[in-house]
Design brief:
Blueprint: E1 2-5, E2 8-13, E3 17-20, H1 23-30, E4 31-36, H2 50-56, E5 60-65, H3 70-77, E6 84-89, E7 106-113, E8 122-126, H4 128-141, E9 146-151, H5 159-174, E10 177-182, H6 189-197, E11 204-207, H7 214-222, E12 232-236, H8 240-244, E13 248-251, H9 254-265, E14 272-275, E15 278-280
């Protein structure tokens, strides 16, 4: 019987005693490669959930950072013996290396998939269309009809594109006017200041990134505009930035995505699952916006 101890893996033979297991042999059959974005600035960090959940199930995890020259590390990993590979399918991932994946290995894409083609794999993806829809719908139904959308450059199939599709779906149902800004370009404080000094200034901001709202907060404070009374704010990914700045944000449910990925790891069939997002309400946009245009209402000043 194989079991864990603080010193490592042990096995017991009846009548003979307890012995230390051959670590290399175990690692051969229970190793799972995990290629994810380990940074917290723009994307939800799966490092807090996925490796620990894999470990609790008896797997050995080889963690690789998708944004740190991952290709040679992944190529080396694929030459070893392993059970499976879990990939955050970001557009920068070297998809061509998957041609070296052994046929018996399980391949699972989590969070997003921005690859050039589909693979024989399972897909446990965040529903970015639904996320954009929920956030835009909340602002529009709450009377915020003039909305500034802060996002990244869009290409078909990228998460920024899916997110915006959801926003447009809500606009089609509830009306409103959208202004779109690509935050990957140089945007000065003056740009935001001009936007919020205009007669048609936004009543709500929907940012496809929690940190994208930080420079806006300073401008709103300088202009003495109140959050959320004058301008309601919703971010995305529910990163530590959202909690630190008291921002309402859309969560992709990364813990559930991690759990689903592990559940499907040992299944023989491949599945495609979209995990529902949810809005985590904080001070920048309450759950009850009142269903009316709240511009100019008195309230607590934005503290930045």
């Amino acid at each position: 019987t194989l079991f864990r101890s603080q010193e490592g893996y042990l096995y017991r033979l009846q009548g003979k005693g307890t012995f230390v297991a051959d670590f290399k042999k175990l690692r051969t059959h229970r190793t799972v490669g995990v290629v994810i974005d380990t940074t917290e600035r723009f994307h939800p960090p799966f490092t807090k959930h996925l490796p620990s959940q894999l470990q609790s199930k008896g797997y050995f995890t080889t963690l690789m950072d998708i944004g740190n020259n991952v290709k040679p590390h992944l190529e080396g990993f694929l030459q070893e013996k392993y059970f499976g590979l879990i990939v955050d399918g970001y557009s920068v991932f070297p998809f061509e290396t998957l041609s070296r994946l052994k046929k018996s290995a399980r391949l699972i894409f989590i969070h997003r998939f921005e690859g050039p083609r589909k693979y024989k794999a399972s897909y446990i993806l965040a529903d970015y269309v639904k996320g954009g829809y929920l956030a835009a719908k909340h602002l529009l139904k709450g009377g915020r009809k003039n909305i500034l959308i802060l996002s990244f450059a869009m290409r078909p199939g990228w998460t920024s594109d899916l997110f915006y599709r959801g926003c447009l779906k809500a606009q089609k149902e509830y009306g409103g006017e959208f202004t779109y800004l690509d935050i990957t370009k140089e945007i000065s404080g003056k740009t935001y200041s001009d936007i919020f000094r205009s007669p048609q200034r936004p009543e709500g901001i929907l940012a496809f990134s929690d940190p994208g709202l930080i420079p806006v907060l300073k401008v709103l404070k300088d202009l003495e505009l109140k959050v959320p009374e004058d301008v309601a704010l919703i971010g995305y990914h529910n990163t530590p930035w959202a909690e630190g700045y008291n921002l309402t944000s859309v969560s992709i449910n990364k813990r559930l995505i991690s759990r689903k990925a592990i559940e499907i790891l040992e299944e023989d069939k491949n599945e495609e699952i979209y995990v529902e997002p949810e809005i985590i309400f904080r001070g920048s946009c309450p759950e009850d916006l009142g269903g009316e245009d709240l511009r100019g209402r008195k309230g607590v000043k934005n503290n930045g």
